[in-house]
């Protein structure tokens, strides 16, 4: 797979930087030889040989003749990443539980454990910390690249402090300090919706041009948006950008948990869907009622109330999508959670609402489709956050230029 841009590497560069950049080239390719690496990077063949030999010796790479039998003459020797050589860990914290996992360099989950929700954040986070230590404790020193943590709400990416996560009732919770206390490992923190977007860009099938401008919509609990523009995650001056769940649909609407009026979250989130179903049955105070997944199943069985709830919610989703389209002109909106599982039921209603609010000329290139990562989107994003830091050396989890993978190949127009 050709890479169109040359990477400027010098012998005077830090060897670790050279090693990671070469690893990233090999990671992204279906089959790359030493000669290919030299051509792409501009390094001399002797420099490439020195770096590659060390990585083969360290167990990071393997070499074998190309399996392409159509080639004339001697088949080239192909370099391939050994995904099991290094390990990453990820933690996803939601309003109902936490998921902890370890994975290889391809993101294949090796071990996973769930921690039940605890209303006391100190107890909850301490249990997550202890479970993370148990899950990673048997990994040999030097093999664990770090721990990525997906957190809801407004997050300080450096410290892991949750400034505000209204759906959890967390304000000023020093999650990063508690989770990393006493650990020798590196920790990386980010908002869950942004990590869902990062996961979509990182864990995709090989080949083609990646999506550079798209929005990921999360709906579990609240409503979050992870926005990638020109290949970069949008974060804003204080990490509070792209909070489209708290843009107002109705000036005299419902009071949101954030304190504002008429937020999109109050009309299209999982919480809103479940509340609306109870309202239509006249049982607003009867909690817990059917979950969003239950409502999807009921609708598939022909339940009239469930279908009406999905239709009404689809209208609100279309309204919000019109705002996203006007603001960012994305090539795609990728949806998760209940909307992904029920997309075939709601798709036409969503598009009808969207087309009624945006001129067709603004929608000709827009695609909307469900994530293929399912409920693991944010957890996969936490793993991708560590991998992106390792392979790109950016230290930011920036998605620009880190992948030549394509979501487009899986979702034709």
CATH architectural type of the largest domain: 2-Layer Sandwich
Spatial ordering of strands, largest sheet: 5-4-3-6-10
CATH topology of the largest domain: Nucleotidyltransferase, domain 5
Main sheet specs: 5 strands, mixed
The CATH homologous superfamily of the largest domain is termed ATPase, nucleotide binding domain
N-to-C CA distance:
23 Å
Which outline best applies? Answer: globular
Q: Structural class from helices and strands?
A: alpha/beta
Number of domains: 3
Number of helices: 13
N-to-C SSE series?
HHHEEEEEHEEEEHEHEEEEHHHHEHHEHE
Strand fraction? 15-25%
What radius of gyration results from the CA coordinates? Answer: 23 Å
Q: Tell me, what is the CATH class of the largest domain?
A: Alpha Beta
Extract low-pLDDT stretches: 1-13, 395-413
Look at the structure and give the mean pLDDT: 86
How would you briefly describe this protein structure?
By secondary structure, the chain is an alpha/beta fold.
Write up what this structure looks like.
There is one protein chain. A 5-stranded mixed sheet has the order 5-4-3-6-10, sandwiched between helices. Strands 14-13-12-15-16 form a 5-stranded mixed sheet, sandwiched between helices. The protein folds into 3 domains: 15-81, Arc Repressor Mutant, subunit A (Orthogonal Bundle), CATH 1.10.10; 86-199 and 377-410, ATPase, nucleotide binding domain (Nucleotidyltransferase, domain 5), CATH 3.30.420; 208-374, Nucleotidyltransferase, domain 5, CATH 3.30.420.40. The protein is built from 13 helices and 17 strands. The chain has helices at 15-28, 34-41, 45-57, 121-136, 175-180, 192-202, 265-268, 270-280, 292-300, 304-328, 337-341, 343-355, 377-392; strands spanning 61-65, 77-81, 87-93, 97-103, 109-116, 144-151, 154-155, 162-165, 170-173, 187-191, 205-206, 214-218, 224-229, 232-233, 332-335, 367-370, 405-406. The protein has 413 residues and is an alpha/beta fold.
């Amino acid at each position: 797979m050709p890479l169109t841009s040359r990477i400027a590497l010098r012998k005077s560069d830090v060897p670790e930087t050279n090693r990671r950049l070469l690893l990233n080239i090999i990671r992204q390719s279906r089959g790359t030889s030493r000669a290919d690496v030299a051509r792409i990077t501009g390094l001399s063949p002797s420099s490439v040989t020195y770096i590659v030999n060390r990585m083969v010796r360290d167990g990071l790479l393997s070499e074998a003749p190309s399996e392409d039998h159509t080639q004339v003459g001697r088949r080239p020797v192909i370099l391939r990443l050994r995904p099991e050589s290094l390990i990453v860990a990820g933690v996803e914290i939601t309003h109902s539980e936490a998921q902890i996992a370890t994975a290889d360099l391809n993101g294949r989950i090796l071990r996973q454990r769930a921690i039940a929700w605890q209303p006391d954040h100190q107890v909850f986070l301490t249990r997550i910390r202890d479970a993370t230590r148990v899950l990673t404790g048997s990994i040999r020193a030097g093999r664990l690249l770090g721990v990525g943590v997906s957190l809801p709400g407004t997050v300080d990416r450096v410290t892991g402090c949750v400034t505000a996560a209204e759906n959890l009732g967390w304000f000023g919770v020093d999650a990063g300090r508690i989770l990393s206390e006493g650990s020798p490992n590196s920790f990386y923190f980010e908002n869950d919706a942004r990590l869902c977007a990062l996961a979509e860009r990182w864990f995709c099938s090989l080949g083609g041009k990646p999506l550079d401008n798209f929005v990921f919509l999360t709906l579990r609990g609240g409503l979050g948006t992870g926005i990638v523009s020109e290949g970069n995650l949008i974060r804003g001056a204080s990490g509070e950008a792209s909070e489209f769940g708290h843009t107002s649909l109705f000036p005299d609407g419902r009071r949101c948990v954030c304190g504002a009026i008429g937020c999109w979250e109050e009309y299209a989130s999982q919480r809103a869907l479940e509340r609306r179903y109870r309202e239509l049955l006249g049982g607003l105070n009867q909690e817990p009622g059917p979950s969003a997944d239950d409502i999807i199943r009921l609708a598939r069985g022909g339940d009239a109330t469930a279908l009406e709830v999905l239709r009404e919610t689809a209208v609100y989703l279309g309204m919000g999508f019109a705002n996203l389209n006007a603001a960012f002109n994305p090539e795609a909106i990728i949806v998760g959670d209940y909307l992904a599982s029920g997309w075939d039921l709601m798709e036409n209603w969503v598009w009808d609402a969207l087309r009624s609010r945006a001129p067709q000329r603004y929608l000709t290139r827009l695609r909307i489709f469900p994530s293929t990562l399912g409920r693991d989107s944010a957890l996969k994003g936490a793993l991708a956050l560590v991998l992106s830091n390792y392979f790109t050396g950016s230290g930011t989890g920036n998605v620009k230029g880190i992948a030549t993978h394509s979501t487009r190949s899986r979702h034709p127009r």
